Amino acid sequence: MKSSSSKMTALFMGTGSSVGVPMIGCSCAVCRSPDKRNRRTRSSILVSDGGKNLLVDTAPDLRIQSLREGISRIDAVVYTHAHADHVLGLDELRTFNFIMQEEIPIYAPPRVLERIKAMFSYAFSEENKEGVTRPRLVPRELPGPMEIMGIFVQPFLVEHGPVMNTALRIGDLVYLTDCNAVPEEGKRVMKGASTMIVGAVRYEPHESHFGLAQAIAEIQEISPRAGYITHLSHRMDHATLEGELPSGIRPAFDGLKIVV
After folding, report:
1. pLDDT confidence band for 3 (50 / 70 / 90)
2. Which CATH architecture does the domain made up of 9-259 adopt?
3. Residue 79's CB: how many other CB atoms inside 10 A?
């Protein structure tokens, strides 16, 4: 399961939970922290390989994230699921259409794609197809393993509280954010990955997310070369967490770029 390049990179566009950090109205130590690594926009990564940029999810903060990182091109988007913190930046793709003068294909499992199309009906309306006030997107189903711009992408189902969610194997990278259990089929897909990015919203278990110990155990079971913790809430201080994690596992932060 190799990508088309040995130098595929992943940029953490955002590493925060659904409300971000600082959280509105909160005065806790993490929300007031001067450590820039504790300032977390909503979770997303940008995978780059062979000169192409593949965005995973369009967080509500996509505009700010793109300005911060100097991103001017998005060649395709893959969605994990249709929760607000993972899709509400979809309209920001319109600016990339302007810059690139191209349509942008968006990929998602069929059930996720249908929900996104319902949430953003104006963006897929035939009536408004030529309008400049909507993003120009090409919806494409991701029912199973496929190549996107030469990058191998495989979706797999994971548990997210009472619903099933999608995680991704992208080349040798596993991206597993909103999850509290991985079925055996998912573990088979993850086997052999060199890098894992796993969400842990807080230290203790959550009804729909891994707690920290669970996320660590998931990484250690697969034993990749490197593991990263993302989707962090304001209950997690970066420096403290960095000192607590086992060797080979690090907390991610907004703007961190890694080689897969």
Report:
1. very low
2. 4-Layer Sandwich (3.60)
3. 24
Read off the pLDDT of residues 75-88 as tens digits, 9 standing for 90 and up. 999 999 999 999 99
**What is the C-alpha end-to-end distance of the chain, expressed in Å?**
12
Q: Which two tokens stand for residue 47?
A: 């995978």
CA distance 18 to 24: 12
State how far the Cα of 34 lies from the Cα of 55, in Å rounded to an integer.
29
CA–CA gap between residue 35 and residue 40 (Å, rounded)? 11
The domain locations on the chain are: 9-259
Mean pLDDT calculated for residue range 14-43: 98
Q: Find the DSSP H helices in the chain.
A: 62-69, 84-87, 93-100, 110-119, 184-190, 212-222, 238-244
SS3 sequence of 82-106: CCHHHHCCHHHHHHHHHHHCCCEEE
Say yes or no to pLDDT of 130 above 80: no
Which residue in the block uniquely carries the two structure tokens 């955002």? 14
